[in-house]
Records
---
Amino acid sequence: MFPASQLEAMLPLADVVVMVAPHTPSTEQLFGQSAFAAMKEGAFFINIGRGASVDEAALLEALVSGKLAGAALDVFAKEPLPVDSPFWDMPQVMVSPHSASTSDKENQRITDLFCDNLRRYLNQEPLRNVLDVERLAARKIHRGIGPC
């Protein structure tokens, strides 16, 4: 693991790069033309983080040029991925429906969390996994969306 400041220095060392970062101001289009240019010739790119962290035009260029051997993409800047997106027809690209985290235990875990939070709510206890609306509002304002 390396800090983001060393990203482009480390990219040439990797055969496979997996993007798992959340969408924040510092990860907005983190993978752009310079990052893809820094990657090893024939490398493979996987994005299971957030679509906004990748400049899709730069990724497309890296794939079409052959710089990258392929990509597995679970998230996109616009979802669902438009039917006219070139990613659908590229044999070296695997598109999945924003479900890379899905597991056979997911529904049970969601149900368990709901039941635990219901019990906590009824007992006037703090809830688990509460959305931080102030942080969300600050993020939306930063992105120019306005208050929620």
---
Amino acid sequence: MASYYPPTGFHFVVNVEGLNSDSADSGFQEVSGLNASVGEETYEEGGENRFAHRLPDRVTYEKLVLKRGVLKGSELIGWFKKAVESFRFEPKGVLVTLLNEDHQPLEAWSFINAYPVTWSVSDFNAESSEIVVESIELSFQYFRRMEV
């Protein structure tokens, strides 16, 4: 009988379409925003006072947030700079892949038409020895969970 061990959340890779996947741009310390919610519309039927009907509405998604130590000469930051400095947006596919202990894919999430909307850097503090972390937020149309 095979036993199942839930995967750990610290072994993953991020690939952005059109960026060098072998570069440091695929390594992040944290990925968040893999959430989807189905909205609801309430409909009150005339003569029915016991309840209101709740009907499914659009799916909404949070922004995809990528965090890592600041990198010099990053292609990902170049993509963001185009959006901010030139207001030129180039939507790209983003693939977040959860890996097992043998570096094989377990699950993947494919983000469709993602583009950068926020970039921030952690505070500088002379009393702390923490690394400088940059956060990049991506907006996208939708995502698909893919079994690998």
